[in-house]
Design goal:
heterodimer; A: alpha+beta; 6-stranded antiparallel sheet; 4-stranded mixed sheet; 10 strands; B: 177 residues; alpha+beta; 5-stranded antiparallel sheet; 4 helices
């Protein structure tokens, strides 16, 4: 095979491998820069002055400018407790255990690649407890009683739970934050 | 056999270079483009509400109202006079690469307003003058960066209240207190 062809092939294979490996690690699937707790994932280095380059790349390439680590601790779930992707045609149930934070918000965002606007979040202090004293949030495109996190459309989505001014032990992953299980209910 | 190892090395070196370039440079380029577009819309050393602005389109909490000021220290220090609403509020200063330089929230501020003076790290301006006047002095490693204020505003009424308070916030060249 011609030397130039071999060179071109080597460069192309190398470039593809480099790009794929970089995107894989930036996504949090490998490298140890993210922390997984059940179906929720967080990035402990987020918003720190000494943030690692993979965490910084993860958020900046997603179009986000993350807040300081002491202000917001963010958890994201793009699958339910059974491991299936979050489907906008289904209803999900989350039972929230009050975290040690000044306040929190739970939002549903379009899955990566879609530009649909997120709906209004559920925010602590504007929620109701049921007769048993539990704080249950139902995530659905169809109207739900009590704490309803409305899905903007029927597409795939992710849940983002943000704890504001939270216990430092959560962001340092020294203590597991009380993250709710994402239980799938009925689907259309 | 040696030739195969050679081409394998070429591939590996290329892979490493592309990997590092993507991780180290692509984020800064992406942020730089968004900031440049934001500057075209709002200008520098000017405060702007950024509800729905593409600068923050990815990953913003819908329960927050955000305002931003792109600072340019080419003409000297910049002063931000920030009015603080009754709800949760935070202020954060970022470098041009999106690294956090300083942050403050309403509980830490314990005031209805704060003054923040931004200056170059190697600037000649005397920080004691600003500090003596009660301002917080933040050193920036470069002439350009971003100040973002975030306030809790869950419903339309709260958003109007917070918007009215933020309208009293100013960002511009430092002319003293």
């Amino acid at each position: 095979m011609n030397t130039y062809v071999k060179l071109a092939l080597s460069l192309m294979v190398g470039a593809a491998a480099g790009l794929v490996s970089a995107q894989y690690m930036v996504s949090g699937a490998a490298g140890g820069f993210s922390h997984r707790q059940g179906e929720w994932i967080s990035w402990p280095s987020t918003g720190r002055p000494d943030v690692d380059p993979y965490t910084q790349a993860h958020f900046l390439l997603a179009g986000e400018i993350p807040a300081h680590f002491s202000e917001v601790t963010t958890f994201r779930a793009d699958r339910d407790a059974a491991g299936a992707g979050l489907d906008g045609s289904c209803t999900y149930r989350l039972e929230i255990e009050t975290p040690r934070a000044r306040w929190w918000s739970l939002a549903a965002v379009p899955d990566s690649g879609r530009r649909a606007a997120p709906g209004l979040p559920v925010v602590s202090g504007a929620t109701v407890h049921d007769a048993d004293g539990r704080l249950v949030v139902l995530v659905s495109a169809d109207p739900q009683p009590h704490n309803w996190l409305r899905l903007a459309d029927g597409g795939d989505f992710a849940l983002v739970l943000r704890l504001y001014d939270a216990d430092p032990a959560y962001r340092n992953t020294l203590v597991a934050a009380p993250l709710p299980a994402v239980a799938r209910g009925e689907c259309r | 056999m040696r030739e195969r190892w050679f081409w394998l090395c070429v591939s590996l070196c290329t892979a490493a270079s592309v990997h590092l370039a993507y991780v180290l440079f692509a984020p800064g380029l992406e942020l730089g483009e968004r900031i440049a577009a934001f500057r075209d819309r709002t200008g520098s050393n000017v405060l702007a509400l950024v509800d729905g602005d593409p600068l923050f389109a990815g990953g913003s909490d819908p329960s927050l109202l955000q305002a931003a000021c792109l600072y340019d220290l080419g003409g000297g220090p910049v002063r931000l006079h920030a009015a603080i609403p009754d709800s949760y509020w935070s202020l954060e200063v970022y470098s041009a690469k999106g690294v956090s330089l300083y942050n403050l929230n309403d509980r830490q501020a314990r005031a209805e307003a704060v003054d923040v003076v931004l200056r170059r790290r190697d600037g000649a301006a005397d920080p004691e003058d600003a500090a003596a006047a009660g301002a917080i002095v933040v050193d920036s490693p470069s002439d350009h960066g971003l100040v973002v204020m975030r306030a809790k505003a869950v419903d339309q009424g709260a958003r109007e209240e917070v918007r009215a308070v933020m309208a009293r916030t100013t960002c511009g060249p430092d002319r003293g207190a």
